[in-house]
Amino acid sequence: MIQVRVAGIEDVAAVNFILRESYTALMADAYQPALLEEALPMMVRANPRLLASGTYYLAEADGEPAGCGGWTFDEPGTGTLEPGTAHIRHFGVRPSWIAKGIGRRLYMRCEADARAAGARRFVCFSSLNGEPFYRALGFERQARIEVPMGPTVRLPSILMSRPI
Ligand SMILES: CC(C)(COP(=O)(O)OP(=O)(O)OC[C@H]1O[C@@H](n2cnc3c(N)ncnc32)[C@H](O)[C@@H]1OP(=O)(O)O)[C@@H](O)C(=O)NCCC(=O)NCCS
């Protein structure tokens, strides 16, 4: 039984819990341990602005927090706005709940709400391990990029996009 709902600031503990479990376990095969040791502390914390945005979602499975993710019009990191373009933000599914369609359910909610708000294109800064997931959702690889995580770390990532 999977339910997807808009997350709020009161869900900070649940989102922290999901991101910590998810990113710590599921990124380990794609990145060097030393890089993850520096980058993970900045990635496994819920972003308060996303939580308050109304476009960040929590998936609950059998009544427990299982996944999270959302979208914004502003580009992560720079805040840049481009008419019609929206950005996928901070997706994570707990390891015990992966491969059960929760990520896709979260994405479908994002797509429906972003389209209703006027977006016609999604852009995603995908982790290396996340690329097959976004490809399955219809995204195409545009370029290899490095995403700044704080002042000193740059995370190798894949720039992906799709029309919506
Ligand atoms: C990426 C992630 C969110 C996917 O969540 P999930 O709930 O397991 O995804 P789903 O079960 O909804 O899968 C959706 C589709 O993607 C495919 N997919 C997901 N992960 C995949 C993988 N590692 N390899 C190949 N295909 C994959 C599934 O086969 C499925 O395809 P289908 O619907 O056509 O059968 C999850 O693995 C995760 O949290 N990873 C770690 C955090 C991370 O890197 N997040 C992305 C940050 S940019």
CATH superfamily: Gcn5-related N-acetyltransferase (GNAT)
What structural class is derived from the secondary structure elements?
Answer: alpha+beta
- Order of strands across the main sheet: 1-2-3-4-5-7-6
Task: Just give the CATH class.
Answer: Alpha Beta
Radius of gyration: 15 Å
Q: Do you know the CATH architecture?
A: 3-Layer(aba) Sandwich
Strand count, sense and barrel status of the largest sheet are:
7 strands, mixed
The number of domains is: 1
- The overall pLDDT, averaged over residues, is 97
Structure ligands: coenzyme A
Give the topology, please.
Layout: E1 2-6, H1 12-26, H2 33-43, H3 48-51, E2 56-61, E3 64-72, E4 85-93, H4 102-116, E5 121-127, H5 131-136, E6 140-149, E7 153-163
Parallel strand pairs: 4-5
Antiparallel strand pairs: 1-2, 2-3, 3-4, 5-7, 6-7
This protein binds coenzyme A.
Coenzyme A (COA) is lined by residues 22-23, 26-27, 67, 91-93, 98-104, 126-127, 129-130, 132-133, 136.
Commentary on this structure:
The chain is α+β, with helices and mostly antiparallel strands. The protein has a single domain, classed as Aminopeptidase (3-Layer(aba) Sandwich). It is 31% helix and 35% strand. It is built from five helices and seven strands, in the order βαααβββαβαββ. Strands 1-2-3-4-5-7-6 form a seven-stranded mixed beta sheet. Strand 2 (56-61) and strand 3 (64-72) form a beta hairpin. The longest helix has 15 residues, at 12-26. It is globular. Coenzyme A is lined by residues 22-23, 26-27, 67, 91-93, 98-104, 126-127, 129-130, 132-133, 136.
